[in-house]
Amino acid sequence: MSGARLTAGGAIFPRLKALGVDFVFANSGTDFPPVIEGLAEAAAEGAELPLALTIPHEHCAMGMAHGAYLMTGRAQAVMLHTNVGLANGAIGALNAACEHVPMLMMSGRTPVTEGGRFGARTVPIGWGQEMLDQAGLVREATKWDYELRYPEQVRPMLDRAHAIAASTPKGPVYLSLPREVLCEEVEAEEIDAASSMQAVAIGPEAGTLDRAADLLAAAERPLIIAQRGAGDADSFAAFARWVEDWGIAVCSWWPTALAIPTDHPCHVGSDPSPWLEEADVVVVLDSLAPWWPDEHALNPEATVIQVGPDPLFSRAAARTFRADLSLAGETASTLPALIAAMERRPRDEDAIAVRQARLNAAAGRTRQRHHAAAIADAPGITKAYVGHCLGAALRGRLSTVFSELGVPLPSIERREHNSWFQEPHSGGLGFSFPAALGAKLAAPERDIVATMGDGSYMFANPTACHQVAEALGLAPLIVVLNNSEWGAVRGSVAQLYPDGHAARANRMPLTGLAPSPDFTLTARASRAWAERVRDRDALPDAIDRALAATRDGTLALIEVETLPD
């Protein structure tokens, strides 16, 4: 584009493409005229552009960007409508921040001038959307925010935003875009040049890494608690080989991503209690809350090693899990470095063999217990049974399952990197449906399944999600586990007050969602395949029919009437 000029609004999209952004998920408003005109202008000039997608609700846009990142490993972009759109996107920002997901958030800013300048305010909304601190809506959830002041800042500020988002620890950033600035012109000559600013990737200090390797090599009862996966595909595979080779127990306490195959001989399940009580070295692998302090007792003699992009989780004001040693860095690079350091340590082969046999037996018993619970006769359909049926239907297929208060991980067979994600610990509901859409967009070759409770489905703005799926030809399988209540809320109340009035009540206050809508009709409004299942024996065939529909290019929804948790 040598010698050409573009409006600042038109420069945004080719610059994002040069930075490696694949998708821009956008919900437009009255602040968007220079953005829309600029996009058309850039396309007419032959610029390389990311795929710009119209998403009719910001929560859906944020979830799709999150899901697309999980599949690609690259930060995606979201464009929101001034302050009101930013408010709608705030839950997605909280989810992304909690999970260290990089994302470029942008929203228009109502014009700052009332006349006399191109792009100035025209209609009452220009006054009604004025805020003293628009970025304050998401500042706690973002690593960096800025308001564009001049059109020539488009390139350097997008470079800076992208580099900060992708730096360790990763996370969302926010750029505010005043309308008048976007209407002005900039030189387009360098708009597709390489980034002027590179992301920062930190790694553990060599001495600390060696100390961690010494401790693990000498440990008699080592334990790893992993919540957020094991890095990329290579480090995921290396991690599985390493823990088996050394006989190290791995616990998946409240995981948000799969770190190890569910049938791995060292995967001792989701309960850390018996292993924490005896462990002499505990590795906390990228785990925000690695155990429940009031219920799980850590061996007071144990050494605790915290490992992750931000091993002390500095965003959490109160997080006092011990950290006798901390290894900071992206898991995909820190794990291989630790594994390599361990290879240089002496091994007690006899002790390792004893550990391996013990872990294999314990892991086998845990799998058998969960399998028996999943297939046990029940008066209705349990979430565990749904997980069991899904695992069987997906066996041998490249697939990803998102679970948001849906099927529990112990019930479903999962073996591969990126094959399992659970709702972020931030608790921003409505995550799994749009995340599944983003994942399917980025990885169309995969079977993508999202399982969720009925409350989570309603929080996802399902009409908007179904519209997007039909418009873009995205065909995941959506499984709504309908127990007509806020099961997580009821469980939390019963946990704190097991003998209280609410637990003894026929209907616990503020938890019921009856009468339930017919969610299949919501799906069918957008021409999706939909079926309701009440009979346990009918579920496996329904899942097969639904997956066949998705493989033919049609989103499928199964509403399963499930028993209370």
Automatic annotation (TrEMBL):
GO terms for molecular function: acetolactate synthase activity; flavin adenine dinucleotide binding; magnesium ion binding; thiamine pyrophosphate binding. Signal peptide: none annotated. It holds the Pfam family TPP_enzyme_M. InterPro entries: DHS-like_NAD/FAD-binding_dom, THDP-binding, Thiamin_PyroP_enz_cen_dom, Thiamin_PyroP_enz_TPP-bd_dom, TPP_enz, TPP_enzyme_TPP-bd. Residues 7-135 form the Thiamine pyrophosphate enzyme N-terminal TPP-binding domain. Keywords: Thiamine pyrophosphate. GO terms for cellular component: acetolactate synthase complex. The keyword Transcription does not apply. Residues 209-338 form the Thiamine pyrophosphate enzyme central domain. It comes from the Bacteria. GO terms for biological process: isoleucine biosynthetic process; L-valine biosynthetic process. Residues 414-559 form the Thiamine pyrophosphate enzyme TPP-binding domain. PANTHER family: ACETOLACTATE SYNTHASE CATALYTIC SUBUNIT, MITOCHONDRIAL, THIAMINE PYROPHOSPHATE ENZYMES. Belongs to the TPP enzyme family. NCBIfam families: PRK08327.1 (NF006203). This is Acetolactate synthase-1/2/3 large subunit. It comes from Tranquillimonas rosea.
